[in-house]
Amino acid sequence: MSKVFSSNQNWKKNSHTNDKRRKTLIIVSLSVLVLLILFIAFIFQGLPSLEQLENPKPILASKVYSEDGELIGQFFIENRIETDIDSIPKHFINALIATEDRNFYDHWGVDVGRFIKAMIKNVISLSFIEGEGASTITQQLAKNLYNLKVKNENSFETVIRKIREWITAIQIEKTYTKREILEMYLNVSYFGRSAYGVETASNIFFHKKAKELNLQESALLIALLRSSVYYDPVKRYENAIARRNLVMRNMISAGYLDESTYERLKDKPIVLGSEKIGGYTTIAPHFMEYVRQQMEKLSDKYGFDLYRDGLNIYTSLDSRMQRAANLAAKEHLIEYQALFNKSWNWDRYKSVLNAVIDKAVKTHPSYIAAKSESEKSRIARELRYRKSFIDSVKKVEQTIEVGFVAIEPKTGHIKAMVGSENQDFQYGLNHATGIRRQPGSAFKPIIYTTAIDNGLFPAFSLLNQPFDFNGWSPSNSDGSTGGYTMMRDALRNSLNIITARLIIQDYAPLEKIGDIARRMGIKSNLTLVPSIALGTSEVSPLELTSAYATLANEGVYVSPISLLRIEDRDGILIDKFYPDRMYEAINPSTASIMTDMMQTVVDYGTGAGVRRYFHRPAAGKTGTTQDFGDAWFVGFTPQLAAGVWVGFDDRRITFTGWYGQGAKAAAPIWAKFMAKTYEDIKMPLKYFDLGPDVVSESFCLTSIMNGTPRLAKESCPDKISDIINKNNLPPPCDIH
């Protein structure tokens, strides 16, 4: 009985223990299952969606084109231009397959055998740079296309990422053909030097299209896929040569290349497109920034991302004219900077120097980072006694700046823009659009336009003698005076007294000057006082050039424009652009008469220096402000209007003599630009169309005023009476 009882107790005890074990096992199993489910959910949570798999959207650079079809720049986070597989040489594809994934056409996204072999090989050799990679092309695509890689990932994150790569690679293989996978891979891969995709890499490294790559160039780009830093052809040339040749050896073993071709190519040097290769270069940095500012405003309206969506932006710029402008400005400023440096003496401007040094000290990074006033004082003392720092401040202050813009009068298209003496820097002050300075005598054509529109004519004469108008008594720049002088000659010689008399004698009323200036394209608020005759109210180079373009366009104002159209990455039109405003600003006859008068300025007047370089029909006007602070030349041909400003960012710095006149400091840039543009583009010879009425009337007036009325009688007998009555002239005695 006792044994039975004991046995029952043991059975109950064992049964209870087994129940506990079963419960524990169930709990553990359920826990593991839950953890496994959570782990799988975590894995799949980081995978691309079906929509993303079927419609991948790599980050693409937005491309900016000139009107003549040249790629002039890009906006990007990742500098990438898409291309299709047919534009990639066969030997490039072969080099890729031979080096990165020889079983590409046979596996289903993951090559397990290769993965195991690669890991063993890498562990044994302890080399992960020259060793064989474990990832297939499809896995690399999964990592790059869907941003699966994590920066500074730990071991656990690496495992998670690898699992996601495998799953995504399998899904990619199910969704796309091998051909499509190769195309996507070559469009998203990073080759170094800010180059994403083979088309961008080909352009950056070799300045050619991908389809033009030869075999050794292709092999170098494939080498860069392994490590764009370790095999950089500029900084690590020997490494790049060795890896390039290894890629070609791989092509031999894969059956894509014969031994004799390899022997011929292996000793060839790497020849890059230029000594200086990088991710972002443009011939028009300030124009690009001008375009960017406009595109940023349009992004909200159209919902695009300028830096990611791969837009195609077509602009008004002409790359040939831009290069001509760059060269003209650069050549002239090199000469003029040396001339200024010889004549400038900081000892005469000690207060200015102390002020700019003080400002430079307080904006210096080390001064700003200082944590106490005593530390700031110490840094300030060190900087003020550091010769290199003082010299750098002086150099910046006395740098001659330039603003240049060229406009096609009939369309308003901005054809060229130079925003600074530094043509490599995109940001900073754009001196073509972002400054407002006194134009000096370059504003006089607007005064004369008002007078002509008010009924005067080129031969109309005013007294070239000083006067006093409420304490204002302007003088001519050379101090000269004279008798009665015709308006044509006054404009030609830039006589301040005559221009001022037009205002004070009410031939050019101030209110009408303001109205005509606005209609011609001056957007700045003008101070309408008599001294505006001397160009004392500030304007920008772009708007003054636009006003001159109105004269060139027979009185029709066309607002300047830089954007022509925007397309998405697939070439679908987003929008087209036209000038905001186009209207008749002044009478065509007034514009024609002014054009004729301003030709005299270029042929025989203050702008005659232009003829040293440029010998086509042209009209224009120089401008020089007080103490030679700002130098201007704005002019036009029948096809182009262009304006130049030359000066200093700090208005306390000025040219030191007559070499700072607009005729000398600014006009040569205009003339050199026009000469090179007309030569390079083979622009046809064209004369200003003044119209028969304007020509005959102008000729009659000039003939009568010059005392040769018989010429007037012969050329326009039916107009003489009207001209005499209109202009209150005494009838010449020998006409009748």
Task: Write out key terms for the chains shown.
alpha+beta; 28 helices; Beta-lactamase; elongated; 736 residues; Penicillin binding protein transpeptidase fold; 6 domains; five-stranded antiparallel sheet; five-stranded mixed sheet
How would you sum up this structure in a few lines?
48% of the residues lie in helices and 10% in strands. It is elongated, with a radius of gyration of 37 Å. The longest helix is centred in the first third of the chain and has 44 residues, at 2-45.
Written overview of the protein:
This protein is α+β, with helices and mostly antiparallel strands. It has 6 domains: 2-45; 66-75 and 285-338 and 399-434 and 540-585 and 614-690, 3-Layer(aba) Sandwich (Beta-lactamase); 80-265, Biosynthetic peptidoglycan transglycosylase-like (Penicillin binding protein transpeptidase fold, Orthogonal Bundle); 345-397, no CATH class; 438-535, DD-peptidase/beta-lactamase superfamily (Beta-lactamase), CATH 3.40.710.10; 692-726, no CATH class. 48% of the residues lie in helices and 10% in strands. It is built from 28 helices and 16 strands. The strands form 5 sheets. The protein has a 5-stranded mixed β-sheet with strand order 2-1-5-11-12, with helices on one face. A 5-stranded antiparallel β-sheet has the order 7-6-16-15-14, with helices on both faces. A hairpin with a 2-residue loop joins strand 3 and strand 4 (195-196). Helix 3 (90-100) runs parallel beside helix 9 and helix 3 (90-100) packs across helix 10. It is elongated and about 140 Å long. 39% of the residues are buried. Residues 126-132 have low confidence and may be disordered.
